[in-house]
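Hi support team,

I'm opening this ticket because the web form for multi-chain structure prediction keeps timing out on my end. I have pasted the exact lines I submitted so you can reproduce it. The total is 512 residues across two entries, so I didn't expect it to be a heavy job. Is there a limit I'm missing, or should I split the entries? Thanks in advance, R.K.
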Amino acid sequence: MSETTVIIGAGQAGGDLASALRQLKYEGRIVLIGEEPALPYRRPPLSKAYLSGEMTEQQLYIKPAATYEKQNVEVKTGVRVESIDRSAKTVTLGNGETIGYTKLAFCTGGHARRLPLPGAEKPNVHYVRTIEDIEKLKAQFQPGKRLLIIGGGYIGLEAAAVGIKKELKVTLVEALPRLLARVTGPELSEYYYGVHTAKGVDIKLGAGVEALEGGDTVETVVLADGTRLEADVIIVGIGLIPNTELAEAAGLEVDNGILVDLQCRSTTDPDIFAAGDCANHDHGFLQRRIRLESVPNASEGARVIAATICGKDAEHNGAPWFWSDQYDLKLQMVGINQGYEEVVIRGSMEEHNFSAFYLANGVVIAADTVSRPKDFMMAKKLVAGRVKSDAATLSDESVELKSLLG
Amino acid sequence: MGLVTYVSFDGEKTTVDVANGDSLMQGAIDNGIDGILGDCGGGCACATCHCMVDEAWYAKTGEPDDMEADMLDGVLDPKPTSRLSCQVFMSDELDGIVVHLPESQF
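Hello R.K., no limit was hit. The queue was backed up. Here is the completed structure from your submission:
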């Protein structure tokens, strides 16, 4: 029987999976199905260079259409998968078409968590996940406008930086007591608070949003403490919900993402895989189950699936890493700092050039580097190698990090 | 538009057209060249698009800036002509350039 891999979701993971299969000389049919109208594109610039207008839609595309044709990948965009029949091994699309598969991959990503308040559906309340989201936002993203950002995570802070650059008046509210609370330590949170405040962002921490008031648009955001903030444009960046409805309906095990093993294979069905934001996978390096939201994680998952389908050994086991550009600062992070006992700063926060290393039981488990690519490259190796070190060594700039690798 | 020849670690040569202004990383991805990953999409943030420019061409590509040089310092087995291919942009000057790819980007 001839082979067909059907990929649901034409984002980073889906696009990468199709390419990786062809690079491994997979000879079967590959069908890549995306709900959005665009070819697979890079999402990170949506909150940065695409919002600021420095990048065009064409430049977001990971590859041009001709490349998929050349690789004999059938790309179907602007169409939903409605259902999956696992016993017949078919998927049925919104246009009625039914496609048989031998292997099926969920690369369905996620959607922006909606603000659960009346008024959140009004036309000046925006999210940052798709090209369409940014197209709507861009039209209102004009100099002098009062921009209110709800959420002090990567999306909120990157949007704030672009807002300042484009001369909007930026206010940011975060429900938790510090910025980037989910992804970094208090030292970095405080550092980024200082950076954004100095650039002119009015940041309110511990500020939950209670109500949205106005007419056709939201005009006032009311905080839990009664503070009223007027706004022309609102961006909500309060997290991502994995797209797992289809997997659940197909009877796959789902718990904060589609449950998959080290090969990204569903714990329920060995012919089904998942990668990217929608997958909750066993992680070889972290030695636990985790759902990650990052491009490197999506790409690695895609490569693991391709290798597994082609009968090669591969495991999802790279040390996770992330990056975020705000103003001219390059934040690069590796590892998950959860459970750290000590944080060590190397370099100078005042000079906007430093790294934070997180230690647990004397082992470097994570690092955040700010405009220090050399430290980042070494930190990747220290974290991946579970290298032991200490505060005196890591903070001493006369000691080359390379020397710790042994 | 100019020609770029990518040479894999085991000597396999692939020559493709790359538009002026496109990076050599994008050229590799557009043409399904194995050996270049480009995980960060060309932002000089990941160093998974490492290549070694053929010595005859290196001078024409110019020197890496500080950020790129620092990233290159941490790649597997850097060479004197190492570059991140996301930071080398096609131009008439580079028509015909040859770059060598490492066995692994990690």
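A quick check on our side: Chain B has one domain: 2-100. Let us know if the file doesn't open in your viewer.
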